[in-house]
Amino acid sequence: MEVKMSLRFFAYFWIILFLSLSSITFAEPPIEVIYWKASDVKMPTPEKIDQLRQVMIEVQDFFAAEMDRHGFGKKTFKFNEDIEIIKGEKKISEYNPFPIDINETSLIEYGLDNQIYVVFVGGAETFIGSNGLAKGLCRTVPENLKYCNHLVLIPAEDDLYFTPVVAHEIGHAFGLAHSLKRFILNSNSVDIMYQTQIVTRGIKDELKNYALNREDATFLNENGRLSIQKAYQDGSQGINADVNGDGYIDLYDVMIVRSGMQNPTTYDTDINNDGVTDENDLALVKLKAMEAIIAASPSKPRFKLTTTWGTLKIQ
Questions:
Q1: Which CATH code for domain 236-296?
Q2: N vs C: which end of the chain shows fewer Cβ within 10 Å?
Q3: pLDDT in tens, 75-89
Q4: pTM for this predicted structure
């Protein structure tokens, strides 16, 4: 009898676990950000690295605001703020046009890990024929392109239309194609995925002049590339999602917060400390629980490229 009860409880527990976690948005791996320093380019200053970090934050905010404008919530991407500096063996002129010798770094890998690498090329104001490049890093194209690793290359010295280019190329890495229409419907905003960037010489172009069209926002929402709520980004590291204080962030914490949305509880279920227990708190504790599960699971095998990059397709 005890064995049957134990088996029944065990089965019941895993059914509840599956149903509860099935609605959790799986967090995409953070975008890796790299500064590529050619042999004849000086090391970047801390101020330069901070500038690149701020550009990524602006692009992060852009996607969050546009997804929210289309009714999907402030969904955006996560990126590694610890920007890597890679010292290239060649002069900057030898890296323009590309390819770069992949053997110069072990950080950038072909594979199906959903990984995106944004590489700022120090000393470059533009690339031949393009302001930015994006390329899939898959030996074979998967059925769902989101599982392909992607490389984004950006000239690091382009201060006039820097940020829109980064957003555009990251859009390609997310699977967005070029838009044939320049302006968003019923708006003066330019489609961020418009195929030709029109700029005025000497005048800085800013992301506030751009927008995501409805079709692209829907695609991003359905394909899960933007899996992080921007509201959680800045302060989430200091948030305690271990609601019941048992030392783990898991299913029990999710269930307590879910209950706390409708019923009084002795637990502190206001995860983001905004004064109420709501869907934002539930989404945050789900995210933290899933991150804990991923961190505890075995790593997937990764596939390294041992040849050189081919000619990059201009996007």
A1: 1.10.1330
A2: N
A3: 999 999 999 999 888
A4: 0.65
